[in-house]
Design goal:
alpha/beta, TIM Barrel, 8-stranded parallel beta sheet
């Protein structure tokens, strides 16, 4: 089977000591491509170096994470699954970074991780929307898919994407209610399902509801592990394939084949 991880963070400090082994396990599991995502100017450049080291399997997605949300996460998320998020908080010019991304568009297959995050504060919603709109505009201009992060901001995210007439959209780890998921399906968006599907009913519902030709697999490694407390890694997309196959009552080969075709259509065309 040819497997795909459309969203991971290989630059995370949790991979610092054994990334070679993580990549090798992914290869052995049948993973053909891992898209590692940046979140700011520092990580956008780090992931380029990782892709150069593993050119046969790693591709990159340049991202601009909701900036205030990232800061709050680093300040307040100690002890949770996302503790130790290894991102330097930097005061960078979003327009300057978007210009850099545009100039380096040939080096990436997507734009993201980007989006909206209202988890920590309602104070900067409008600023986040303005920034996300700029990212959407660039992705449309350079014809790259968007890998979208939405946390407690699902409706606003879909509204911005719809108004912008964005077509190449992947909703990563999408936690919306069923009615909004149905709307996003109708808009033609894709949805990436993580290995945590084994222990979260929400993703099991999504796998059942969403047509197979709109599904993708991700890990968000090192997060969203199928086993609580364990580091997630790209080889675990095989677990997601197994769960989707069980829910869809199809063979794992059928599911993997269709998801790989979905990936090629969205990211390689």
């Amino acid at each position: 089977m040819d497997l795909i991880d459309i969203h991971a963070h290989l630059d995370h400090t949790k991979f610092k000591e054994d990334l070679d082994k993580v990549i090798e396990r992914a290869r052995k599991a049948g993973v053909k491509t891992i898209i590692t995502s940046g979140v700011n100017s520092t990580t956008n450049r780090l992931i380029l170096e990782i892709a150069k080291k593993y050119p046969d399997i790693v591709k990159v997605s340049f991202g601009i994470y909701p900036l205030d949300a990232l800061a709050k996460e680093l300040e307040n998320d100690e002890g949770s699954e996302t503790a130790g998020f290894p991102r330097d908080i930097e005061n960078f010019d979003i327009d300057k970074e978007l210009n850099w991304i545009g100039k380096n568009k040939s080096s990436c297959v997507a734009i993201g991780e980007c989006g909206l995050d209202y988890n920590w504060s309602d104070e900067k919603k409008e600023e986040q929307k303005q920034n996300f709109q700029k990212v959407i505009n660039l992705a449309i201009k350079i014809n790259k898919p968007l890998i979208v992060h939405t946390r407690k901001a699902e409706a606003d995210s879909v509204e911005l994407l719809e108004k912008s007439k964005a077509k190449k959209v992947v909703l990563h780890c999408f936690s919306a209610r069923k009615s909004l998921i149905k709307k996003a399906i109708e808009l033609g968006y894709s949805f990436s399902i993580p290995p945590i599907i084994t222990r979260l009913e929400h993703f099991q519902m999504m796998a059942d509801l969403i047509p197979l030709n709109q599904l993708l697999t991700e890990t968000d490694a090192p997060y969203l592990s199928p086993v609580q407390g364990e580091r997630n890694e790209s080889a675990n997309v095989a677990i997601t394939i197994k769960e989707i196959a069980k829910i869809k009552k199809l063979s794992e080969e059928e599911v993997a084949s269709q998801i790989y075709e979905n990936f090629k259509k969205l990211f390689l065309n």
